[in-house]
Predict the structure of Glycoside hydrolase family 18 protein.
Amino acid sequence: MSRKDALQMKAAAASQIVAAYYPVVDWSTGTIAPENIDFSKYDLLFFAFATPNESNGLNWDSGSKNTLSRLVSAAHAAGTKVVLSVGGWGGSYWFSNAVSSKANRATFADALLGAINQFGLDGVDIDWEYPNSEGAGNPHNAADAANLLHFLTALRNRLGTNHTISAAVAHQPWIGNNGSPLADVSAYADKMDWVGIMNYDVWGASAHPGPNAPLGNLCGTSSLPEASAQAAVSQWTRAGFPASKLMLGVPYYGYVSESTATTLQGSFAANGKAACVLPRKDMEIMNGGQQDTAEPSAEDTSEKAPPLYAPHPRSGSSSAEVAASTASKDQATFNAAKGTSSTKAAADLSSYWGQQVGFSTLVNAGVLARQSNGTYGQGGGYTMAWDNCSDTPFLYNTSARTVVTYDDTYSLNSKAVYAREAGLAGVFGWSLDQDDGTALVGAVRSGLKK
């Protein structure tokens, strides 16, 4: 690493952002009132969503303007910034039209500036899912990516440098007119403060579930090697987007699958043995559940196959040392860390088959049990396991034919450590309301050393 790169990473780490999306209409656990948010945990919140309309203006859900006003007031009083996120999976229908001509781009940029001025916002976030791609049945055009750059230029001219411009993005850069990810996005980076990599929904619910949000292709066996935190950072930086302008997105939710699987997709080492059911060592949780981890290192972000027992535990030793000397001890330690079965009756998650489920919902259902050290153990008849190939946990109950793939305090802390050591702009969660109090954001903050 050059001295220049090292200094840039150090500067980025000093100002890394902890953020989350605040969905005004939530379909899982219910929106938290703005006045009840613990703003001390967040540097920035994305208000989700307003959506583009056929006139290149903005549509708002009923009551959302009032909620946004309350959010901005409460957040600013606590020193937290608020950014308006526009679009979303179900709200990207009119994006292609809104950026398709100079006149449309000007109208759309003016609409965003108007919202900033009306609500006292700190910036805008373009959540277009996705340029030159159908997404949720959206019109799209081969010129979408080029038109997006023209729009970002117009928007920056409107907003100046006092307001942020960001975008929620996939693991790879936007699709160009040749149908492939753009090879050079440096011009976009010049107009933007950051992009947020949505490192989730890699695998959804299925009879053969896989990890929702892999840290990396850590065993070299994933059928989606381009879809992980490590891969995304590599793909965007290779295309000219600085690491210091990349935020890593993490999920505060998981997926419930109707399945009898006890391993995850892509979770087999080269020798053919399952790499996902070996336990992690319990970590000492200090100061209300904060975790101090030493891995993974960002010195080399290439995706190398780790030892079978990697990447946990995180006790300061290398993965190889842990694998060689503490594997058998880990079994007993992890069993203790998981806790015993919950005193509640066996949890029935069949109503969630094929759906997303919030982390807090898993806790409230008794599938995850709060531990005295600030972590979460197994409950409700479920067995907790760890997928070493993606560095994520999962739960299974074969008699109930249910598998839950999700992220917890361990895996989110691990991703935040990676973001810190890679010199990223920060970490954001989808979504604030699905946290169990502030347990998950607390793990993120600890990983970023905030």
The mean pLDDT is 85.
